[in-house]
Structure formats: C-alpha cells, structure tokens
What we know:
This protein has helices at residues 14-17, 24-30, 72-77; strands at residues 3-5, 8-10, 35-38, 44-45, 51-52, 56-68, 83-93, 103-105, 116-118.
Amino acid sequence: MEAEEKDHALVDATDFFLRDAHGIPAALRRTKQGAYKLDGARCAIYLPLTKNFPLNTEVEATLTFAGDEPGRWVRDVTPSPESITVREHHSFVQLPPPGYSRALTIHGPAFSAPPTWITPRRLASRS
C-alpha cells in the first residue's frame, strides 16, 4: 500500500497488471508454437483503454513475450516471430447485492478460454 487516508487506499498494482494472467507461454508451448517468456522491459499499461468509474475499473496491459523456435502459425501471423505482443484486459467490478444468481457462459470454439460464470442481466422495472 502506497498511501492510506480515512476510507481510501492507494495501491501500486503495476506488477499485478503487467503479469501474464492468461498463461500465454504455456498455451504457445502446448500448441507447439515456441518457447516464450514475458519480457518485462517491453510491457506497459495501455492508458487509452485504462479507465476508472464509480463501480468499476478497467485496465489494459500491453505485454511482450520473447522467445525462439516459433511454430508455423506464429511465423505466419507475426512480423517478427521472436517477439509476440498482446493486450490483456482486467476488469474490477463491484459485486452485485446479496441474492443475485450466476449463469454459466460457454465460449465458442474460436475461444480458448474456459467456461466462466457471469451475472445475468435483469431487465425489470425498478418502480
């Protein structure tokens, strides 16, 4: 914690955001696309898509992975297969009130992410 005042705290979360939250090197290795690791000197918070709102905070990070032995797919889609740069997005959202129910969403075959729980949208009048 960098600073604290009454009911507010300032936390430096830079290291948290500039880490690989999605396991990209493992996915590349598993699909035989090369051996990569995060190059911390070439990572940064992407400020145009980093925003703070009353009930949520959105942070976008640009991460660069350096490696060798690139697989065919990596060689076909990157200008320089020794480096892969991606963006990872983090959302911090205020939890809903007690009594909400969760719904399971299954990502389509184009996504490699596992199924995740989401809060259903309720379109009900508040009056």
